[in-house]
Amino acid sequence: QITLRESGPTLVKPTQTLTLTCGFSVSDIGQAVDWIRQPPGKALEWLGVIHWDDDKRYNPSLKTRLTLTRDTSKNQVVLTMTEMDPVDTATYYCALGPNFQYWGQGTPVVVSS
Amino acid sequence: QTVVIQEPSLTVSPGGTVTLTCAFSTGAVTTGSFPQWFQQKFGQTPRALIYATNGRHPGTPARFSGSLLGGKAALTLSSVQPEDEGDYYCLLYSGSVQVFGGGTRLTVL
């Protein structure tokens, strides 16, 4: 059974940079990892994907602020989002597989001064 | 930017059948949109149900079926159970990125 776990700060200040990590239980997964977020009471929003060959795609509305990187030695993918704003308050999820088969539990992030 | 449209809410009786749809604001959904469907119950992590229009993930009950219907992606639930209540999201592939719909809240009543 593949498990994923998101980790990172639960509170960031406006204008700060958010860094979240998605750790997974297997090595050499050879699959894509997507990031998704969900503001409280709202819909899911796809943020971006990093493929096994390091190809990356980003949500056009976040492209200038978002970076995904992969650390294969640590079995993890890192999301970095700059210029955080209160509207970025959400639960952030990572999902693994070509069809989002496996999801982490999500990590809540509040943006507030 | 691409917008994906779903019914905001639907209600179905236990044992009944309901169809949820998922459309692009402009243009038809095709198999090349690789429609996916997710279920999210209150306070829980989303769960993948359907991929590539009509592929069921392991564990997805057979009463959930995906299709294309009139230029839209569709998720049909047959013999609806009370535990099927929740939010359903579709996800479409468009121009090398993915876009979620706004979700449909399904009430079983």
CA-to-CA gap between the ends of chain B?
36 Å
H and E string of chain B: EEEEEEEEEEE
Helix content of chain A: under 10%
Shape of chain A: globular
| Mean pLDDT over the residues of chain A | 93
| Number of helices, counting only DSSP H or I runs of 4 residues or more of chain B | 0
SSE order of chain A: EEEEEEEEEEE
| Cα radius of gyration of chain A in angstroms | 13 Å
Structural class of chain A: mainly beta
Strand content of chain B: over 45%
What features would you describe in this structure?
The complex is a heterodimer of chains A (113) and B (109). Chain A is mainly beta and 113 residues long. Helix content of chain A is 0%, strand content 48%. Chain A has no helices and 11 strands. With 109 residues, chain B is an all-beta fold. Chain B is 0% helix and 51% strand. Chain B has no helices and 11 strands. Chain B has strands spanning 4-6, 9-12, 18-24, 36-40, 47-51, 55-56, 64-69, 72-77, 86-94, 97-100, 104-108. In chain B, strands 2, 4, 5, 6, 9, 10 and 11 form a 7-stranded mixed beta sheet that branches. In chain B, a hairpin with a 3-residue loop joins strand 5 (47-51) and strand 6 (55-56). Classes of the chains: A mainly beta (113), B mainly beta (109).
